[in-house]
Design a protein that fits this description.
Elements lengths: L2 E7 L4 E7 L4 E5 L6 H9 L6 E6 L2 E6 L9 E2 L7 E4 L11 H11 L4 H14 L15 H14 L4 E5 L9 H12 L5 E4 L3 H7 L2 E6 L2 E7 H6 L4 H7 L2 E7 L3 E3 L5 E3 L1 E2 L11 E6 L5 E4 L12 E7 L2 E5 L2 E6 L2 E5 L1 H7 L6 E7 L4 E4 L1
Parallel strand pairs: 3-9, 3-10, 7-8, 8-9, 15-23
Antiparallel strand pairs: 1-2, 1-4, 4-5, 5-6, 10-11, 12-13, 12-16, 13-14, 16-23, 17-22, 18-22, 19-20, 20-21
Helix pairs in contact: 2-3, 2-4, 3-4
């Protein structure tokens, strides 16, 4: 059984079709305003799309015709959908204990008081806070409260878990513990997790969907999307330079006439020349040279050289990341000092063609 979702929210420029397979966790990523919360809210029943249809494990969540009067509309209220939404903030009932918060879902579904209490204790134990059952939310730390919120969501036995940046409000000590918890409890469950953290995607998701401007820009297995991005946002997540253009042999030519040579990453399966393609390469493969000192292309491996103007310098681990518009290079602090790099300087970014991956989009 699956989630099958297709909806349009014209006023927000949102038009998305999505499927979540049984036992699959999908990471939903994209820039602010891309439509991530719109998608979660409409699945949960908190937002009514202009049109579309969604079905979860055989249950019709909504069916709204694309034209007014085009048949009867179906709209299932949130409490009947079999979904559970977990947000950045735990949103626990302040007047109830942790155990009563977790028991609330089963009780609302008609489970007896004793059985619901047993379920609450079971799930509090599953998330490692059984000893906090009698505490109220004001007596819990942020990480503890979020664990209780996870237990509350799971106790409702949802067919689909919806997680809206559940780790974003946690400190650096609590987040890794919760991430490991999610890895365990999401195994074998259908879930959609909205996140801006590439580590969340790598650890928790089977598949990544990139939303941009209310549409799916890219989707696929998590590692494939991050290792071979086909959208600028995914490339930024992976920390890679991303140059879109038109395929020209084992390279791409940009709209500004710049040609970037590289390797055919699709083993002879590149689309025909003239098709859209991208060149991707890591900042660590880029060398920085002053205008009068970049290497002669006639020697050694073929190289790409880009005349750029430095826009920013920032620490990046034990390196210095040199940004120049949409491109970046990672060099040592010593090299940066030797070159006396500063914003506004004109330099050349040079990268061997062997370090550039080229594939079609």
């Amino acid at each position: 059984m699956t989630l099958s979702y297709e909806a349009v929210v014209a006023g927000r420029g949102f038009d998305v079709a999505l499927t979540v397979r049984p036992g699959e966790t999908v990471a939903l990523m994209g820039p602010n305003g891309a439509g991530k919360s719109t998608l979660l809210s409409s699945i949960a029943g908190l937002l009514r799309p202009d049109s579309g249809r969604a079905e979860l494990n055989g249950r019709l969540l909504f069916d709204l015709g694309r034209e007014s009067g085009a048949g009867e509309h179906t709209w299932l209220p949130p409490h009947q959908r079999g979904t559970a939404l977990l947000a950045q903030e735990p949103l626990l009932f302040p007047h109830l204990s942790a155990a009563d918060n977790v028991a609330f879902g089963p009780r609302s579904a008609g489970t007896g008081k004793r059985a619901a209490a047993d379920l609450a204790l079971h799930w509090l134990g599953e998330v490692g806070v059984a000893d906090l059952a009698a505490r109220r939310p004001a007596e819990l730390s942020g990480g503890q409260a979020q664990r209780v919120a996870v237990a509350r969501a799971l106790a409702a036995d949802p067919g689909l878990l919806l997680l809206d940046e559940p780790l974003a409000a946690l400190d650096i000590h609590s987040a890794p513990l919760l991430r490991r918890l999610f890895r365990r409890v999401l195994a074998g469950r259908q879930a959609i997790i909205v996140t801006h953290d590439v580590l969340d995607a790598l650890m928790l998701a089977d598949r990544v969907v990139i939303l941009e401007d209310g549409k799916i820009a890219e989707e696929g297995p998590t590692r494939e999307v991050l290792e071979r991005p086909r959208s600028r946002f995914a490339a930024g997540l992976a920390g890679l330079n991303f140059v879109p253009g038109i395929l020209e042999g084992a390279g791409v030519r940009t709209g500004q006439g710049l040609r970037v040579s590289g390797n055919d990453e699709e083993a002879g399966q590149l689309p025909a020349p003239g098709s859209p393609g991208v060149a991707v390469f890591p900042p660590s493969a880029v060398s920085v040279f002053l205008d009068d000192a970049f290497p002669d292309h006639a020697h050694g491996s073929p190289r790409n050289s880009f005349a750029v103007t430095i826009t920013d310098l920032e620490p990046h681990g034990d390196q210095v990341r040199v940004r120049a518009g949409g491109l970046a290079a990672d060099i040592t602090p010593a090299a940066s000092a030797d070159l006396a790099l500063a914003p506004g300087m004109a330099v050349h970014f040079v990268v061997k063609a062997a370090a550039v991956s080229v594939y079609g989009t």
